Amino acid sequence: MENRVEIIEDRKEFVCYNIKNKDMKLRCEENSASGAVSQRACVYCGARVVLNPITDAFHLIHGPIGCAAYTWDLRGSLTSGSELFRNSFSTDLSEMDVVFGGEKKLVGAIDEIVKEFHPKVIFVYATCIVGVIGDDVDSVCKMAEKKHSMRVIPVKSPGFSGNKSMGYRAACDAIMKLIGEKKKVEKIHGINYLGDFNLAGEVWVVTGYLKKIGIDVVANITGDGRYDDIIKAPQAKLNIVQCAGSMGYMAKQMEESYGIPFIKTSFVGIEDSENSLIQIAGLMGNEETVKKAEELIKFEKQKIKNDMNYYRSRLYGKKAAIYVGGGYKAISLIRQFRDLGIETVMVGTQTGKPEDYEVLKQITKEGTVILDDANPSELEKFMVEKGADILVGGVKERPLAYKLGVAFCDHNHERKHILAGFEGAVNFAKEIDLTINSPVWNYI
Ligand code: SF4
Questions:
Q1: Any residues with Cβ below 6 Å from ligand 1, and which?
Q2: How far apart are CA 207 and CA 202, in angstroms?
Q3: Is 408 helix (H, G, I), strand (E, B) or coil?
Q4: Overall pTM surpassing 0.90 (yes/no)
Q5: 8-state DSSP, 119
Q6: Could you tell me which of 394, 395, 363, 368 has the C-alpha nearest to residue 382?
Q7: Are residues 141 and 207 in the same domain?
Q8: 383-420 in b/e burial notation, b at 16+ Cβ within 10 A?
Q9: Which of 16, 71, 193, 332 could join 268 in a cystine, given CB atoms 3.0 to 4.6 angstroms apart?
Q10: What is the predicted pLDDT for the residue at 358?
Q11: What is d(CA 322, CA 14) in angstroms, rounded to the nearest whole number?
Q12: Where does a domain end: 178, 211, 234?
């Protein structure tokens, strides 16, 4: 296929080829270039991704009805308890509210939610227009807390106030506000699990492994999370962070405020699941716990050995392109592909940090394209140039791959299979095999 796409001038420093004996100067962690049509969502959407999985919380979007379209149906996550989080409310601000202010409507909406649903906590999201007209969302939330004797937490997330990472930060600030100041708490022997949103049940896989080696979880933040558990989070002895891009900031805040140390972990792929389990066992337990973790790993690996060998034989020599939200997933996916005999030829993220890109440079081969905050044209250009057989991404990347006649794997909210841990590694290999080796490609 002919490749005529040019990278626009303002984007050139956000894209590079991996050249091993040369320093990589890739720009990242910046707002998207005007006119580049980034794949990123807005600040409010970033905040919603993080907070929405709290199962017994209520989400009130203070803004025009369009912002409220971003609901559980688009960003689903699973629950083992309350289904309350699947509801969504909006103050539906219109022209008159923009002129005269929307605070009255917000007060009315909170009153209505409390009367109908009795949630333990309401998150009130301030969207673009609220940032412009200057409604005092903080005061309204404070007054509502007094009036109803419950938690009403403002989430400062006007879409224009930065990029998606700012939304993650706004969500973390909201959770910290929910937990509140807890100077002296009695510690319990358990961990908090941060940055897994339980899209297809991953939290249950990971907490299941931890339970088997004798480690308790105090709070899941936020996948399958609950208000009562989250406010107990300061009692934990260790925070393990799956998606550091979204919750690394909160882990640092919790370390400062409650003295809880944290480690970055990943349960994407066999290698990373194994390393994470051993590391957690070492920090939280004793020799016995590490031994239990080793036995569990041996057992789980044996269970999937034949399946993995089968898929390796069918996938060896293929080429992958990766474009995902954060750095941790991109790094783990490269290792996972390597385990299947697949080389990664292009890798990018929406919100990766300099340290993530440094690791990506180290673990990819010379000539691999590395890019931050890409747009569809760039993804298309490099997938074609590098001859990728498959793209791994989210809902916005799916049509792009299919239009190019390239296989696709959803590693985001639309998927239905667990992709974490050892069983997740088999599900992933199976899905890659099904899509790459689908007979449909013979008809293109
Ligand atoms: S950019 Fe602003 S108006 Fe658009 S969805 Fe985000 S908060 Fe709403």
A1: 42, 44, 63, 67, 127-128, 159
A2: 9
A3: strand
A4: yes
A5: -
A6: 368
A7: no
A8: bbebebbbbbbbeebbebbeebebbbbbbbbebeebbb
A9: 332
A10: 95
A11: 16
A12: 178
Q: 421: helix, coil or strand? A: helix
198 alpha carbon – ligand 1 mean position (Å): 25
Query: Candidates 59, 70, 75, 127: which one to mutate for ligand 1, based on the most atoms within 8 Å of Cβ?
Result: 127
Alpha-carbon distance of 141 to 27, in angstroms, equals: 38
**Structural contact between residues 36 and 156, judged by C-beta atoms closer than 8 angstroms:** no
In this prediction, residue 444 carries a pLDDT of 81
CATH number, domain containing residue 19? 3.40.50.1980
- The DSSP-derived string for 143-198 is HHHHHHTSEEEEEE--GGGS-HHHHHHHHHHHHHHHH---SS----SEEEEES---
Q: Is 425 left (phi over 0), alpha (psi -120 to 50) or beta?
A: alpha
For residue 4, what pLDDT is reported?
64
Which range of residues forms the domain containing residue 257? 190-290
Count how many domains the chain has. 3
Which helix (H) or strand (E) covers residue 393, if one does? strand 390-393
Q: Is 146 left (phi over 0), alpha (psi -120 to 50) or beta?
A: alpha
